[in-house]
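User: I'm putting together notes for a lab meeting next week and I want to include a structural view of one of the chains we've been expressing. I don't have a solved structure, so I'd like a prediction I can at least talk through. The sequence is below, exactly as it appears in our construct file.
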Amino acid sequence: MSIAVSVVEDDRQVREIIVDWIKRARGFRHVSDYGAGETALAKLPAEKPEVVLMDINLPKMSGIECVRRLKPLMPETQFVMLTVYEDPDHLFNALAAGASGYLLKRTSCEDLIAAIGQVHAGGSPMSNNIARKVVASFHRSAAEFNETQELTPREWMVLERLSRGDLYKEIADSLGITMPTVNTHIRNIYQKLHVQCRTMAAAKFARVTPPSGAKSP
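Assistant: Thanks for the context. Below is the predicted structure for the 217-residue chain, given as structure tokens.
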């Protein structure tokens, strides 16, 4: 049985090249191809391809939003993003939306066809440098988590208020402590998190989950 594949790509030349690759590959079947997410959303649920190659930067509805809407309608279909975007935000947003793979458009014909077969078999194909970004992100998150574990429950409370923009006096009043104590807590927080300002501390706070009982009510 051949693997049924659809393509969603707004660049007609790129779309035609990908479709031609699929048609020429043994064991694969071209089902359909569309240049807009809205059309794909309307047509693909009835066609039920096994794999969909989805661009991110579509004219109106993004490819990520299209996957987010299609996945509940097509739970058995595997979506692979085929894009120029290499940044972690697009990558993780696509995976959160329901994509099972993430490839760059410079992927060769041979590698693209192999990736389609891989995702159909239950894998999660990614371009090599994208996979490295995933690993680097997990390493960075683990390091930040370890740093934040050094904070005391009281320092967590101060950091939570600091990250939402409270003034030092507001922090002191809400926690029933003095201004010098607030300053001491903030110096300790900056030292433990290896940051120099409120913005950097807030950024790390946003990426981790405070330990139970540490956040303020």
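A couple of points you could mention at the meeting. The CA atoms of residues 49 and 62 lie 20 Å apart. Strands lie at 3-8, 28-34, 51-54, 78-83, 101-104.

User: Perfect, that's what I needed.
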